[in-house]
Amino acid sequence: MKTSHAELEISSVPPLLTDTGHDAPFVLDDGTVACTRTAVVEDYPLVDDLHTRCSTASLARRYGARRPGFSVAEWQRMVNSPRSRVLLVTPDQSDHVVAMASMVERSNAPEMCDMAMLIADRPPDAYQSRGLGTRLADLVADLAREAGFKFLAVTSLWTNWRMLLIVEHLGGPVLPQTSYVRNMALLGLLPNAGLDVADEIDLRIAL
Ligand SMILES: CC(C)(COP(=O)(O)OP(=O)(O)OC[C@H]1O[C@@H](n2cnc3c(N)ncnc32)[C@H](O)[C@@H]1OP(=O)(O)O)[C@@H](O)C(=O)NCCC(=O)NCCS
């Protein structure tokens, strides 16, 4: 049977680009409602706005030694690739972005995608440690399964205990030092603990 041009177009539409099931409000640990939606190309300037709501330390945890942000080409790839997705979080369905999470496919490993997150921590937009990262990670893991990935890859500073706890929450490796690092950080002792806070580790989570 001959396939029409229209049929070809429909069957080649990647499922993630038509899926809006994850654009929904959700409730944080303290009862605050936040809205999450899928980013589009036009949202590029909103990422810079989010950076102004983040401390230097948070930007360094997200981007390492790199300059924070993405080139236009990188952003287009992240939001337009069929098996990649960027989620934005706003308090009120406005353009006031307080967090983002990304799932980016790897060209050299079709079974694996990279997950990264950035949550604002500068008052009045102090959204860290309120359960948002954990909720976003769950959403990204769901998206990744739907897109057929078998693994999530996360690159984290080994002192980034919140992120390491999220990796554990998703079923990834449990690192013995995480609770020690967390306690030192909460006591304000991390900078003096003789730890090399710049070391990054690559973690893999089976989905
Ligand atoms: C890392 C990051 C995404 C975590 O998100 P978050 O919303 O702050 O974290 P959550 O509130 O979901 O908490 C994650 C874990 O830390 C624990 N936690 C958070 N704050 C805590 C505190 N003050 N005391 C004790 N435990 C705390 C939570 O209980 C949870 O652990 P659990 O699953 O064992 O309960 C966020 O802090 C962030 O954007 N940081 C800057 C950028 C970054 O580090 N990105 C990661 C690299 S890609």
Q: Structural class of the secondary structure composition?
A: alpha+beta
Alpha carbon gap, first and last residue:
38 Å
Reported for the largest beta sheet, the result is: 7 strands, mixed
User: What ranges have pLDDT less than 50 throughout 5 or more consecutive residues?
Assistant: 1-18
Condensed summary:
The chain is an alpha+beta fold. It has helices spanning about 5-10, 15-20, 45-50, 55-65, 70-80, 130-145, 160-170, 180-185, and strands at about 25, 35-40, 85-90, 100-105, 110-120, 150-155, 200-205.
Description:
- InterPro entries: Acyl_CoA_acyltransferase.
- It comes from Streptomyces akebiae.
- This is GNAT family N-acetyltransferase.
- The protein has 207 residues and is α+β, with helices and mostly antiparallel strands.
- The protein has a domain at 16-154: Gcn5-related N-acetyltransferase (GNAT) (Aminopeptidase, 3-Layer(aba) Sandwich).
- 34% of the residues lie in helices and 23% in strands.
- Strand 3 and strand 4 (99-106) form a beta hairpin.
- It binds coenzyme A (COA).
- The site of coenzyme A has 22 residues, from helix 4, strand 5, helix 6 and helix 7.
- Residues 58, 61-62, 116-119, 128-134, 156, 160, 162-163, 165-166, 169, 186 line the site of coenzyme A.
